[in-house]
Amino acid sequence: MINIRQLNKFYGGRQILRDINLNIDAEEVFSFIGPSGAGKTTLLRLIDLLERPTSGTILYKGVNTAASENIRIETRRKMAMVFQRPAMFGASVFDNVAYGLKVRGEKNPRLADRVGKAIQDVGLAGYEEQDARTLSGGEIQRVALARALVISPEVLLLDEPTANLDPVSTVTIEKLIMKIIGEMNITVIMSTHDMAQGQRLAGKIAVMMEGRILQTGDPGLVFNKPENHLVARFVGVENIFEGNISSNSDGLVNVAFGPHVLEGISDLSAGEKVNIFLRPEEITLTPSRTATSARNSFRGEIMRISLNGPLARVELDCGFPMIALITRRSAEELNLQKGQNVYASFKATQVHIIKR
Amino acid sequence: MEEIGAAFVTALKLIITGDPEVLSITLRSIIISGSATILSALIFIPAGSAVFFSEFPGKKGLVNLINTLFSVPTVFVGLVVFIAISRSGPLGGLGLLFTPGAMVTAQALLISPVITGLSISALSGVRPEIKDTALSLGASRVQIAITMLREVRYAMAVVVLAGFGRAISEVGAGIMVGGNIRGYTRTLTTAMSLETSMGNIEFSMALGIILITIALFVSIIVYRLQRL
Fold this sequence. Notes:
Chain A is α+β, with helices and mostly antiparallel strands. Helices cover 26% and strands 37% of the residues of chain A.
């Protein structure tokens, strides 16, 4: 559907996007994930043809979008973008939603039918005559969605659709987006800085940082098998160690890091320098060494316990720092205290090893 | 002091009793300045929009020049129009000199920098997101321009009123090209100038009160519009 080749974008002397190569398939839900300033918005704006790349090409169904001004506007009219902070025209909700159809020359009564349905679809029936600028943030986001969907776009672009909303409105908007994805034959390209939202909504994600795409793939895969330590940090891998593979027998490897050794699964051979990624929620804490199938167990002192909703984040000193994420209830039942010694265990299969 | 007080009372009487002379001068003023404002707005709001929406070398300089001309002396505009429409001037054949048409022309020209400059600044006040939104929803360049003008419709009304305020209160250009002919080109300001010099303070004061009232009305409307 959309193929991006060697895309670069500069603003003044600053490079915002670097060497972006990307293929987005029809009816895919694709999300760019990354911290603020990663270039997500700029990339969405380039895809929507609101701006021109400094170099590189964007193909839409195989057609080079830079070929002519006509192709640009025709292609743009097949897409609709919802901005992070949607701007409302100084007009009624109805007129805001009708805009895209009016500029395409749609006439009544079809215009009124389609606009009415779009407003109903986002749950704003009855708000038609209200001044759009007097609505709340969540309502404005819904008007913006209706305004984009009313034109039946092939591609819907969503820039941080919930970044400025309260938790309740966020749930409403996410449900709406899921409904749209489920009911319409539409390609959705979105951006978010929220890893969890990316996982909830997207079928495919691309992790972006400092203008580059670092990893693209299935959210589960990116989440569990980050390709480098930047991605790993972003997707919440808090335990990252550098080590060397000291042995490999049938895929079960020993990895030495400092004076410590842990076991993992890898096809890399002995002597390879590696990064070791371990998600904090994969670690089990026990007060004493117990028999377990987990191949790895380290004794460590609890340095700090911080509670975060139903979870407890436990910082350990095992001779190296290690972070475990357990439920608050477990922490309470085990009566974990600062200064106490515990055993941190995890399976070899939960250790993600990549070449450094 | 007493004389001024008495003059003020007489002035109020002239207004309240609807003195025909006062009434006709007021109406003429409003019609001439109103026409000048409409004419100027019809030409210079589109001109200002054209400047805003196009990119060309020297645009910034042009905008600065327009803003400088906000306070162009009225007598200078009067002189330019006088030369243009005098019998031997390039537009002499139109026979405009010492007619209300000449005054409309002079006032329209006088307020053209205000109309153009304030139109540009009103459009500059539109959030860039509005343009992006229109573009993203498939609007063409012309459609985007229309959308942005609609976004600033209240600001444009303020622009027009500011122009009207300057037109109705100016005296220099009107007197030069209109000639202050009684019952024909005599307006509030030109009449005040003449009557004061003739010692008719009460009459002048009545016209002054009316002029101030019109200015007050205009600024109330402007204030209201800016709240919207």
